Amino acid sequence: IFVISVTGSALVYRNELFLAVTPRPIVAVPSGERLTDEQLKDAARRAHPGFEVTQVRRARNPDQSVDVSLQRGEDVKTRMFDPYTGKDLGGSVPLGVTLVSGLIDLHDNLLAGRTGRAVNGVGAVFLIVLCLTGAAIWWPGIRKWRGSMWPDWKANWKRFSWTIHSAVGFWFFAIVLLWGVTGVYLCFSGPL
Asked: Average per-residue pLDDT in the chain?
């Protein structure tokens, strides 16, 4: 619950995080003729021996770097190449984007794919059970329920701890229950 809460709080700003970590496109200085796709494939093969080029993607701006996808067995990578010289300019996915995507995967799947998503859903079911049993235990009776909505500021520290726990539980019950219900829905509503 703690990991999901912390990562979820950060991911409220996922769009801003992606904007902050995405660098501007690399634009090459024109130096002669642009290389053809075949010439770029040859440059990629020379730069990464043993890899086969699976795709060449050019941007709308003809001077912008070209994304070249390479594969060797299960190993897949996408690199940027200068459209004029064929020089390898680095990975096409910046480290920051990889980290934010990893944070999303931690929040959604606990970094464990389908199994993590299922564990996440089971955790959401337990959160619902925790909320409902907490509400049942909290219920002080028809005459005292209003007094249980606020902490007893004059009580000794043990009683104060109990009353503040009780009051916080009352005021956050609906929100936490909603988190549990939406967690179950998002984990089990579609294909895992």
From this structure: 93
Closest CA to 40 of 1, 103, 9, 85: 85
66-72 sheet: strands from edge to edge: 52-57, 66-72, 75-81, 88-91
Q: Whose structure tokens read 């299960």?
A: 74
With contact defined as beta carbons under 8 Å apart, do 135 and 59 qualify? no
Q: Output b/e per residue, 75-88; b: 16+ Cβ within 10 A.
A: eeeebbbbbbebeb
pLDDT value at 145 more than 90: no
**pLDDT over threshold 90, residue 143:** no
Per-residue confidence (pLDDT) for residue 191, from 0 to 100: 62
- Count of C-beta atoms within a 10 Å radius of residue 179: 19
Residue 142: CB atoms within 10 A of its CB come to: 7
Mention every residue, 6+ apart, whose C-beta is less than 8 A from residue 27. 61, 63, 64, 65
